User: What shape does this take?
Amino acid sequence: MKKEYLYISNLLSMSRFLLLAVCIYFLLNDNYLMTCIMIIVIWVSDLLDGYFARSRNEISELGKIIDPLADKVTVISLVVILLLKGIIPAWYVIITVLRDALILGGGLYLNYKKNMVLQSNWLGKVTVFTIGGTIFFAIFANGAKLGQFGNYLTYHNEITELLYTVLLFMSLVLAILSLLSYLQRFKEIK
Assistant: This one.
């Protein structure tokens, strides 16, 4: 287990907590351009940790825990801040946080009772990606409205707002479907 901390993939997963702190700093200070850049950096580090885990054969129990935990902490932190700033609706935050809390709780239960880690499936990965896109475009649309991305996007913000709205409802449907999928898998294993 000690050696697993030094895997490049796990170091990248752990670095996402530091990257998230920087992202939150920019978001709290209404610097939406830097917030968007940090979200992209977090997303790239998430892709890279998966790549290194597979290509270097560094798939580990620690990585199976820390990678999804970093995803969940990132999503929950950002949606709560966006709610407090009035950028996204409360119902979306409730559904997103409830989904992640139930999946995390079920995963911890399986780890404790069965000593196993339930890996994410393709639907869960697509859902997290779509939720991430929703968060990104909520921030991007807000920054564009405030003129932080140049005059063109300030006057043509309807495109980013449309993308945000489509992703908002798409991620809502996927969140419900993926939660049902995880609950089914949990029920089969339990």
About this structure: The chain has a mean pLDDT of 87. Residues 21 and 74 are 9 Å apart (CA to CA). The domain at 3-189 is CATH 1.20.120.1760 (Four Helix Bundle (Hemerythrin (Met), subunit A)). The chain has seven helices and no strands.
